[in-house]
Structure formats: structure tokens, C-alpha cells
Amino acid sequence: MKKLIFIFALFAATLSGYAQILTSPDGNLTMSFSLSSAGEPLYQLSYKGKDVIMPSKLGLKLKDTTWLTSGFTIKDNKLSSFNETWKPVWGEVSQISNHYNEMLVTLEQTIQKRFMKIRFRLFNDGLGFRYEFDRQPELSYFQVLDECTEFALTGDHKAFWIPGDYDTNEYFYTTTKLSEINADIVDGSGIGTHGYFAKNAVQSPLMMKTSDGLYINIFEAALLDYSAMNLLVDQKNFVLTSSLVPDAYGTKVYMQTPHNSPWRTVIVSDNAADILSSKTILNLNEPCKIENTDFIKPQKFVGIWWGMHVPDHWSWNYSDTPNLKLKNADWNALKPYGRHGATTENVKRYIDFAAANGIQGVLVEGWNIGWEDWAGNWKEEVFDFVTPYPDFDVKGLHAYAASKGVKLIMHHETSASATNYERRIDKAIEFMKENGYDAVKTGYVGWIIPRGERHDGQWMVNHYQRVIEKMAANRIMIDQHEPVRPTGQHRTYPNLMACEAARGNEFNAWSVGNPPEHETILPFTRLMGGPMDYTPGVFEIKMDYYKAGNTCQVHTTLAKQLALYVTMYSPLQMAADLVENYEKKMDAFQFIKDVAVDWDDTRYLEAEMKMPASQL
Ligand code: NOJ
Ligand code: CA
Looking at residues 154-162, what average pLDDT do you find? Predict the structure, then answer.
């Protein structure tokens, strides 16, 4: 027995003392794992012989108990390989190769008798790894104070970043060196709920370019039952450290084993186009869980929408009576004030245009009661999601749309009251079913209710997921606005067609807008996790067209608005402008009619994140 123990101890010491090496299937990427003398887990990554990530620590800080950061020995280390090809329900390609080599390290904190696994997967274009906790006697319930995953970079890379924030990702991108990141220089005006939590924090995905031409993207995949990852930047040593979104108690994640973290990802190449074609984020998500996906229909749509964002045109609200309470107001007695967009007449015009031009969907916002008093007051009950305004004939419009082969798209603005939405969602879905809707756009404008929760925290991550799954169970496609940024879970739930989760075209209508380079950076950042409902296709770009003297504008050309249909792939793609603006330029609209929303193959000829001349 003694001999056996001795042999095991020798084996464990061997595992701990030496780096365990893993290479990608094509041999371009190499990672190694080891323990420091204090038993801290360390990993590093190189690409074609160049360092990408220098030795970096891994672990979690726990509340009221020993942290999972040191004191580890290696119990086991398993290597394996995987290679399959799978078919997505929709997307930019019809087949996806999922090919990686894996290392599964089992660590033990010997004194505490606790176990933590780290699973590394090395693909040809990047690394994914996550923490895994099996059910175990000495680690059952625990609270995470923070995750301390490090990404030690090799220098002061150029970074394409938005400030670290718990409640919004609607900033435009800034390009600076890592050492120059400073959230103070970013204009957050126009964003409903914003407040960066540290000047040197940025959100993931973070895109970087090194001085010797490497493109590095740091992100996460399969963000489920966990809070989103921001990155704190050490501006002297260029070490990024994960920083999770807390709740009101400062707790970042509540865990009960078995529980895994999301995957942390480092995608790397010497060619920017490879970052765009990477399927690593998707591959790290679970296969499709929807049995019958025949209700999922990639499509284009127009909408009663842009007219509310441009100055002095339409409104969501029916009347201009302020301070209405959902339960007490006599909604039918309200007087229309003349600018309501979602009228039966307007919607019919949009249905006609859609039908005439092969567009399948018409989104209608402002169709339901509650918009008179919806934003800014942190109100629990704003919308009921089932009562139309008197001038919106829901049944008549559905019959009309059906007769023309068009579908209306539902809108559920929750005003960030997730509790109210969860209480009412079953009735809201019943209403959708009764009236022929099979797609919904959700929205979360405002500070979250339950108060103290954050848009990107664990509670809301679970809320968004519950809604996606409920919609899937009811055969409904979904487009989320103001959610946490997606991390590839549309592989598992392909009814999640698109998300906003970034600064969309709408900001051009009423704020300083989106600098032209913003749309060249989005594909390398926000779109890494899934399609964006950017709402392209604005032809009438100057807001003084609607209101004399208004200086807002879409920072674009007409050709660029069309190009966005190719560079910002979405299977639920809007033609955002007013139909009368399209009717004036039907030659250009022909491109929107023709462009696909579900492709068999995609070739990236060339790609680059464009920077403004001042930041080159
Ligand atoms: C913000 C969304 O991004 C926008 O598309 C929507 O029109 C408004 N909220 C109202 O829900
Ligand atoms: Ca928005």
C-alpha cells in the first residue's frame, strides 16, 4: 500500500511540476498547462511559435471560504480529440466543422478535499476553456466574489473597446492602445442606463491587433447561469483579468454543483478574415435542443419603427396624457394626439409594401397600451402585452397580412421590468398564438426590475434564457434588444434569430450617432457571439429631412447601408427606413430585395477593423 501511495505521489508531482502540452489539429496553436509552486493553475498559448498569452493564472474567489486559486495538485489529465461536421438551422454556411484537441485537467485542493476541473479545447483558430465542478461533498453551494482568469498579453496591443458596464453595451467603439484605455473619453450620452465601473475596464468580446500583425479576440461562449465577463486591463503589464457582473450584494455568481462556467475564448490569427469566419464560439455551445425547427424562418422585415426614432414623425404612444397607471387608467377613453404610428392604416401600408417586394415580416411597435408612461421611472407594471390601442385592429390586420402572405412581428418592450414580463408571458404568448404571430422582438430599456439586478448579471442571463426557451417551446422566433450580448447559444436554440446588444443604427437618429468605423469593428466584436439586429437600410440619412435644423444623421453612404446586409449577417434582417423613402429609390432597394438571409457558403476575401485616421 505504501508503495502505491509513493507511486501515486510521484505521478502527481510529475504532473504538477511539468507543463502539459496541447496542440491544435493543424499544429499552429500550442497551449500548455502547469501549476506554480503555490499550486496555482497556469496556462499559456502560442500561435505559429509566437506567444499570444504568457503564463496566466486561473481560478475563482469564493465568499466565506478558501478561494479556488491555489493549493492545487493535479489528480488527472486526459487528452482527447474530436472531429465532426454539423449543419446549423440557418447561418452564413450550411456546414460547420467542429474539430479540436482537448485536455481535461482535474485539480484537487488537497487540504479542503475540493475538486475543480479545467477543460481546454484547442481548435485551429483558437482556445476555449472553462471551469467545471462536479457534485462533491466539500463544495456544494458557493458564491463567487470574482473569477480571476488572466490573459497576460505580450505587449501594448491596439484595442477596439467599449467601457466595462453592467447595464449596457450601447457604446460606440474606441480604438486605442491598451495603455490608453480610459472610459472617461467615451461619450455615453443617449444611452438610457450606463455607468462604467472602472476607467480601465472593457467589455468582451475585446478585439486586438499586435504590432507584428496578430489579431486576437477574447470573449466567452455559452454564457448560461453565470454573469457576463468584463475585462480589467493592467495598463503597465498588459494583463487582462476577468471581472464578472455583480448583483446588489456584490456577489457575481451563485453556484450549486454540478455547475460549469461559460467557456473563455481566445481566437487568434495572422489574418483578420479568420476571426470573422471562426466558428469556435458556436462550436463551444451545445447542439440544437429544438426537435422540430420548421417554424424557424430566416426573413427580412420592415416595420412601424424608424418613424418613431426620427424627429417629429411617429410616436409609440397613442395619447399624450402623462402619468398613467396600467391598472387604473381608462385606456379606451384616451384621446389620440395625432402621431401614433401603429395605426391600422399605417400597418396596412407596410403590409402592402412588404407583399409587393417579397419581404416576409412587418414589425409593429407601439401597438399596445402603456407607452404614455413607459421609460425612466423604474416602474414595475408598465405593459400587459395583450391590450391593443383602439386604433390598432389586431384581428383585421392579421387577416389582411395573411391574405398577402405576410406575417406581423410582435413587440414586447418590457421597460426592463423582467418580473412583470415573467408574470405575463404565458398570456402574452397565448395572445400571439391566437393572432398568428410567430416572431417577437423583446426589449429591456431602463434599470432592471428586480431592482438591484443588472442587464448582464446572472439573474438576467437566466431570465433571457427562460424567455428564449419558452418561445422555443411555443414555436416562436425571437429578436432581443438590450439583452446581455449573445455568446453563440443560437446553436442550441436557433429560434434566437438576432439580438441588438450593441449600439444599433437607431443611435444615428437621435444622438451623436455611430462613427463610421463602428460598423467595421462590430463584426469583430459583438457579432462574434451571434447575429445583430443592427437595423440597416436607411436611405434618408439626414434628420433635418424630418425637422429643419436637426443635426443628427446616419454616418453613411447609401452604398454602405446596402453593404451592411452582407457584413452584418442576420437571419432576421430589417429594412429599417420608412417605405416612402424606399419608394423613392427602388433601384437601390432592389439590392435589399435580392440579398439572402440564409447562405450556403461565405468567403471572406479581405477584412480589417477600420480606425479613424486620428487613431491610426
Ligand atoms: C430600444 C430598442 O432598441 C428600439 O429598437 C425600440 O424601438 C425601443 N427600445 C422601444 O422599445
Ligand atoms: Ca437599443
Answer: 98
